[in-house]
Design brief:
The chain is an alpha/beta fold. 42% of the residues lie in helices and 19% in strands. Helix 11 links the parallel strand 11 and strand 12. Helix 2 packs across helix 3, helix 3 crosses helix 4 and helix 8 runs parallel beside helix 9. The longest helix is centred in the first third of the chain and has 18 residues.
Length: 380
């Protein structure tokens, strides 16, 4: 490896979402350690995405024909070869599936795959190819960000599991200096209301329809949704049908530096997502001091818990009405909300940004060691 190792992060679409935030934070954290950081995205999903330094885009739009896909793969290999990375880190299932073999064909010796896509987002064919890539060594290391996600890979071939390492996500504190009134003014949100909210890609898997349905239980509640995605029209239609459209507010996509200000505008954070590997948005909101009501996923119970107790109340997104009581409880029981906020302040220690960066620093420096040696060192 060169004296200033060149690291390439490969992602699918460029947008302001959790996986992109993690690679951005890793790049920013590894740069001062002497790495030459580069980013490659298959295509740009969002016009508001602010690309980190040394970023390239493979194609303008998502390939939708066989010819366009072939051109994309050819260009991907050429771009990786031109960058000449020492180590490639791939993210999300398509980033892993296409980025890893493209990196190998471009002559890259070391590939670290990051499993940051929930299993529900992957079909059987994707899982089969991913399993094959891990078994034959297309990936040198496979990171997972939670114990629950690691459990999803139980029963995979030994040669796959031996490559797996648990590296919890770290995050940057999203607390804001803005008061609630100023924060609401910044996003054009109503002042004298109880404001629920969520930050998520507007995708059916995020189950934001559940948050909208919660508004039917109390006419004083409003809901603010921060994000963009293909589900916006359907969500607006649901709100119209329920008669709550006047209390639903879309603020659009926002950069990472604005998320804290948006959270400062809220009274409570709702996270009804159907599938997560970590739940970064909920962890950030909890650490910022917001009461949280989340879908009862094992991974969310794992990450929204510290030694001081739970940081959230849980409901069942398959039963939307189940969200009403925990929302009402946290809005009316200040003592309980305060206890959870005190627990949530410990999340910054539990999911330290420095610890994540240092773990990847060590992973990169360990490339070239036998798999068994890496596994033994990680266990120690």
């Amino acid at each position: 490896m060169s004296s200033r190792p060149r690291i390439l992060f490969i992602q699918t679409q460029a947008e302001n979402a959790g996986a992109q935030e993690i690679s951005r934070l890793l790049g920013e954290g590894l740069d001062p350690k002497g790495y030459d950081i580069h980013h490659l995205f298959f295509y740009r999903k969002s016009s508001s995405f602010e690309a980190p330094p040394n970023t390239v885009f493979c194609v303008e739009d998502r390939p939708r024909s066989a010819m366009a896909f072939a051109k994309f793969l050819f260009r991907l290999i050429r771009q990786i070869a031109a960058i000449k990375p020492d180590v490639v880190l791939t993210f999300q299932h398509y980033g892993n599936l296409f980025g890893a073999p493209a990196a190998r064909l471009a002559g890259v010796r070391h590939v670290i795959a990051n499993q940051v896509s929930a299993p529900k987002t992957m079909n059987d064919k994707i899982r089969a190819i991913d399993k094959l890539w891990g078994r034959i060594g297309m990936y040198d290391v496979i990171t997972v960000n939670s114990a629950d996600t690691a459990g999803d890979y139980a029963g995979y071939p030994d040669r796959y599991e031996k490559r797996m390492l648990h590296v919890p996500h770290g995050f940057r504190d999203k607390s804001s200096n803005l008061g609630r009134s100023a924060a609401r003014q910044q996003f054009g949100l109503p002042q004298d209301v109880i404001l629920l909210g969520s930050v998520a890609r507007l995708n059916p898997l995020k189950r934001l329809d559940v948050a909208i349905r919660a508004l039917t239980h109390n006419e004083c509640w409003h809901l603010a949704l921060g994000g963009q995605g293909p589900d916006e029209l359907r969500l607006r239609s649901i709100a119209e049908g329920l008669g709550v459209a006047d209390r639903l507010h879309f603020t659009g996509e926002m950069g990472p530096d604005k998320v804290g200000d948006f959270l400062a505008a809220l009274d409570l954070f709702v996270f009804p997502s159907e599938a997560e590997t970590f739940g970064l948005a909920a962890v950030e909101a909890a650490q910022a001091g917001l009461p949280i009501v989340a879908n009862d996923l094992p991974v969310l119970r794992e990450v929204l818990q510290t030694e001081l107790g739970p940081c959230a109340l849980f409901a069942n997104s398959d039963e939307p009405d189940s969200f009403f009581e925990p929302i009402r409880e946290l809005l009316s029981n200040q003592g309980r909300a305060t206890a959870m906020a005190e627990s949530a302040r410990e999340l910054k220690k539990l999911y330290s940004l420095d610890a994540m960066i240092n773990a990847y620093d060590q992973l990169i420096m360990d490339q070239g060691k036998p798999i068994q040696t890496r596994a033994e060192e990680a266990a120690a």
